[in-house]
Fold these 3 entries.
Entry 1:
Amino acid sequence: MTPPGRDYSWLPEHQVHAAYTLAHVDTLIERVGQVLYDYLEPGPFMLENVVEGEVAMVRVKSVAPLPAAVARYAADAMTQMRAVIEHTIFAEVEYLLGWALTGEEERAIEMPAAVSEAKFTEWLKHRRRRDLGPLQAGELLVRRLHLLQPYQSTDVDSHPMRVLAEHTNLAKHRTPAVAAVQLGQVGLDTPDPSITTRAGGPIQGGDVLATGPVGKLVPVTIWPQVSVQRPHTGTWRIVMKELGWLEEWVRTTAIPHLIAGTRDVTPLPPGLDITVGYDDARAALSAAPEKSALKRAEWRIQAATARQSLTELLASHPERVAPGVIQAWLDRLDDDTVMNTAARLQTNGDLRKFDWVMREMLAEATDHGRLISGCSST
C-alpha cells in the first residue's frame, strides 16, 4: 500500500532507473557523512596554550590530516547526480524516438549548463543534435531543458546546474573535489570582552584561535568544519550541505521536471535500498525512507550531543549513578531512541515529573550496567 501522500504515477517505466541512481547518490553522501563524523568527533585540532608576556593564547598546534575518502566520495556523488540527469534525458529521447540510438546519436545526449540563452541555442544547433527530433527547438523536452539552465537564475554562478557542472568537470578532468578542514567558529562559553577570538575560515598549525589576559580562564568551544571549494568561484561551502543541496535539487526539481514537466509531484525517496532486487519497484519506492543522507547525518550529530548532555545531566542527580554507567547505556541506544529519551525530559516546568523521569532513566541505566556486569562475570 502506498503511504498517504505518495503518488509515483508520474514516473514511467522507462525512467524507473532514475530512482535507483538517486538512491546510489544518497548512499555515497552517507559515506561522506560517516567518514566526516569519525574524523570530526574526536576533534581534528590539537591545541596548545601559549603565554607571551601578559597575553595568553589558544593556538593550533596541528591539524589532523583529512581522509582522502571525503573528496573522492563527494566527487563520486556529484558525478552520479550529473549522470542521473543525463541518463534521464537519454531514456526520454530514446522513448520519444521509439528506437535505440546509434553511437553517434548517443554522444549527442548530455545536460548542458548554459550561462546564456545564446549558449543554449548554440548547444541545440550542434551537428550531433540537429537531426534528433526530441532535441529540436520548441520540442517539449527542449523546453524542459531550457527551464533548468543556469541563465534562468539571477545569480548564474550559484544555480545548482552550474555548480554541479563545475564540480563534475573538475572531478572528471582535473582533480577530485577540493576539500579542506576549516574553522567554523570559536565561541566563548561565557561572554567576556577581554577575550578576542578568531573568525572562521582556512586553518593550519600555528594559527591563534583566542587571545586574552594571562590568568583569565574562559572556556571556549571550537567548531571545525570540512568544506568543498566551488571551482568556478573559489568560494567554500560545507561539504555535506553542498552535497545535500545539490541532491535535493536533482531529486526534487531536475528529475521530476525532465520527466513530468513539473516539480509538483511526489519526489523519489532517497532511502531506497539498492543492494537488493525488487519485483515491484513502485512498492519498494513507496516503502523507502524519505530522510536524506544529509538529514540523517544532522540527526546523528544531534543524537551525539544529546548523549553528552544527558550523561552530564543524569550524573548530577542525587541518585549518583556513575557517568560511565549512564554513557554505556546511552551508547547502546540508537539515535532515534536517544532523541526520544531526551524528549521525555520536556515536562513543561513540572519539576516533580522531571525528577521522576530522571529517576526512571537512571534506573534503566543502572539495570543495563548490572546486565553488562553480569555478562562480563560469566
Entry 2:
Amino acid sequence: MTVETDVDLGPDRLFAALADPVLSSAALLNEIASRHPEAISLAAGRPYDGFFEPAELGGLIDEYRRYLSVEQGLPEAEITRRLFQYGRTAGHINELVARNLELDHDIRVDPASVVVLAGAQEGMVAVTRALCTGPGDVLLVTSPCYIGMLGAAKLLGVEVAAVPERPDGLAAADVAAVADRVAATGRRPVALYLVPTFSNPSGHTLTLAQRHELLAVAASRRLLLIEDDPYGFLAGPQERVPALKALDPGRHVVHLGTYAKTCFPGARVGYVVADQRVRTADGRRGLLADEIALIRSMITVNTSAVSQAVVGGLLLRGGGRLREANRERIAHYRRNLEVLLDALNRSFPPGSGVSWTRPAAGFFVVLRVPFVADDAKLAESATRYGVLWTPMSYFYPDGGPRHELRLSCSALDPGQIEEGVRRLAALVRDSRKESEQP
C-alpha cells in the first residue's frame, strides 16, 4: 500500500479569488522586476530612495521618547512598554495624527476617531469589511481604480460597481447614476472608493466644485465616500485642493491616509479617520473607528510601536506639519513629472500613434500605445528593452483598455526617466514595424 505524504491542494480547496487576475497582477509585476533588476522601472509608484537616511531613525525615536517623557509625563517604565510591548489596537500616535491633519489639511477630528494602521491597505480591508455586511451590499469604485482596493474587495467577496472616470476625472452625475442603477436591482450601494488627489492610476485631481458635487450626491444617496489620500501631503500650493474630509460637516467621508510617501513605506504606518456615529446590535453607541479597530485587532493586532515612534518623531520634528518638511520632495516629484512629459514630447511626435495624459502634478501618466499592453508585452519590454511599465488593464474591475499603460516617475532621477522613455520609444518603434510586416 502506497501512502502519499505530500498534500496537493487543488483549486477546489482554495479561495476562488486567489486565482483572480486582480490579485496576481501585482505579484507578476514584482516577479518580472526581480528577474530584471537592471531594467528601469517606470512602473513603481514608490518614493525616491534619495530621501532616506538610516542614521535619522534613532533621532526620530529619541524625539518621540522626549515627547512621551516631557509632554505626556510618562515614567520611563511606561515609555519602555510603549515602545516594546503590544499597544492599543487603535494606535499610540492618534493625537499627533489628528494634529497633523488639522495643521496640513484643515481636517478637524477628535483623536478618538483616528485608527493608526499597518499601512492604508489594511484600512481598505477593515473599512470594507465593516461597511459591507451582506451579499446585497455593493461597493462603488472609480474605473480605473487603485488595484489595492480591487484586491481587498475580491478577498472579502464584496461586489463592486464601476463608475467610469471622464477625461477630467470623476463626475458626480455618473456616481449618482451607478448608485441608482444598483439600488434599482434591490441591492444597496454602500460607499464609493476614490483617490481624489493625484489619482492612482489616472493622475486626476478633482476640482473643488467636483468635490462639493460628490458630497451632495453622497448626502442624497446615503452613500459614504472612502477618500484615499496618499498624495495629499505632496501637493504644492498650485494644485492644493481641500480634502473631501475637510469639506464634510455631515460625516459622509471616511478618510484613509498613509505616511508611506512622506516618511517611508517600510514603516507601514497609515491611518483612517472614521468619525461616523454607530449603534451596535447590543445597543452600544460609539464611532465607526471603534468597529474598525475591532476588525484590525483580528488581522494585525496593532501597528508596530517602533514604526509609530519613528512617524511620531517625524511629526514632532516638523511641529505637527509635513508640508514644510516635504518641500524638497514636492519639488523633486514636480520636476520629475516635467522631465517625463518633456521626454514623451520629444520621443513621440504627432503621428507616432502614441498619446498621453498631462496631469498638472503627481506620480502617474497614462499612455495609449499602438500595441496590446499585456503581461506578455511587459515581459518582452523588460527582457529586450530593459524598461518596466504597468498595463492599465490591471486597474479596471471588469477589464479595461488593452492599448494603455501607466508610467510612474516618482522613484527615479531625471536621467533614468529620460533613458526609460528612450527604451520605451524603441519598444513602440519595433512593435509598429512588426505589426506592419505582411
Entry 3:
Amino acid sequence: MKTLSLFIVILFFSTSLFANNELANKELAPSFITIFNEGSRLDVIDYLSDHMSKGRIDTYGIDAHVGVFLNNQNTFGNLKVVKVSPLSNGSERVEVISNNNKLKYNLIINKEKEAPHKINYFTLQDSSAQNSPEKTLSTKALKQELSSFIQHLSKEDAFSGSVLVARGKDVLFKDSVGFANKVWKIENIIDTKFSLGSMNKMFTAISALQLIEKGKLKFEDKLVQFVDKSWLPKGDSGAITIRHLLTHTSGFGNFFNDEFNQSNKEVYRDLEAYKPLISESELLFNPGERNRYSNSGMLMLGLVVEKVSGESYYDYVQKNIYDKANMPNSGSFELDSVTGNLASGYLKRMHSDGWVDSIYTRAIKGSPAGGGFSTVEDLHQFSIALTKFQLLGKEFTEDAYTEKTKYNSAFWYGYGFSVGGEANNRIVGHGGSYLGVDARLDIHLDTGFIVVILANQSDVVAPVRRKINELIASYR
C-alpha cells in the first residue's frame, strides 16, 4: 500500500501538474510530501540534511528542523494533494488535506533564490478557501461535533490535552483526552494542570498595569530606575521604558539561548538566576525603533513588578491575579516538587523514535516570560474576571488588548495580549508553546465566546482552534 501511494504522488506531480520537465526537476514538493507521508525518522534526517539551506542549518541546527517536521508529521498525518499552484516569490505552494483532521492546508516550501535553491523553511498554513457556515448548530450538535473531532485526534495521537468552550459564564463544552503521564498511563482530566508557555505574559503585563493604574509606576519610567545596571546588556539600555517592555520594543532578545540550553535547569528558581543570560547579551536594536517578541524583556518587567510592589513576582501574581480571579489550580510550580495533576510534556525529537519527555529541557520554575501552569477552568475564570474589569479598570483593561503600532509594536499585540479577529469579532488572548507544550486562550470580545485549549504535546493546538472557530461561527 505504501509503494502504491508513493507511486500515485510521484505520478500526480510528474504528469498532470508539471508538464515542463525542466521545472519539474526543480520542484521539491513531490519529494517533501513523499517523505512526510512515508518517511521514518532517519529518512527525515537524511532528507532535511540534504535539502535544507546551509544558512538555516547553521542558524538553528538540523535538530530543530527535524523536530518541527516530525511533530507536524504526527499532528497532520498523511497529506493528500488537492492542487498545486505556480511558484511565487521563491515558494512552492501545494493545497493538501490532512488525513488526521480532514482540514485543508497550504503547504508552503520557501527556497533559496540562488542555486542550489534549497529549503529556507516549510510550513502548513490554513487554506484561505473557507466556506461560509451552511447550518445552525445547537449546543448539543456543537458538543457532538467537537467531541468527535477531539476524540478522533486523540486516537491518531494527534492531540493530548483539555479543551473548554464557553459563552460568558456558560460552559458549552469541556473535555480532556490523552495522557498527563504516558509512562504510568495517567489520563488527562479537566483538573489537569498544563504548562502555559508564554501565556504567563498576560499575567505579567496585568501586574505592571495594575501598578501603573495605582500610580506606583508610569509607562515612561525607565527600566534603570528599578533594576541594577549590572542586569543590563550592551547597547542603549538606559533608554528602555516600561512601555517598551510591555510592547516588545525594548531591543531585548530571548534568554532561551545556547547558554540556557546547556545550563543546569535546577538553578532557575527565582528571577535572579536569569541574570547571566540577559546581562551578557546585546540589545538587538535601539529601544523603540522596532519590535521583537522578547522573553528577556518580559522577565525584566517581572523584576520591575518585584521592585515596585516589594513582593516576589510569584507572590504578587498569586494575590493580585490568581486569587482575585478564583484560579485555585494555577501557579509557577517547581518541577521537582510533588504537585498533583501536573501534566508532563511530550514531543518528537531527532534522537528518538518514541515520545520524548520535555521535563529536562525546562527551567525548574516558570518565570514572568512563561512556564507557569493552569487548567482550562481556571483560565475561563481568568477571562471572566478580566472582561468584567475585576483585575483592572475598564480603561486599562481595554488598553491592554488594543494594538500598539503607534509605538512600533506588532499590529497583533497590545500590552501582554495578542489582538486579532475582525471589527465585529475581536479576539484577544495569548498563545504559548515550548517543547512538549502548546496552549491557547481566545476571548471573543464581541460574541462572548471563550476558548481555552491546553495541550501537553507539541504543535497540536492549531487544528483544534480552527475547528472550534468554524463551529462557533455556526452556533446560535
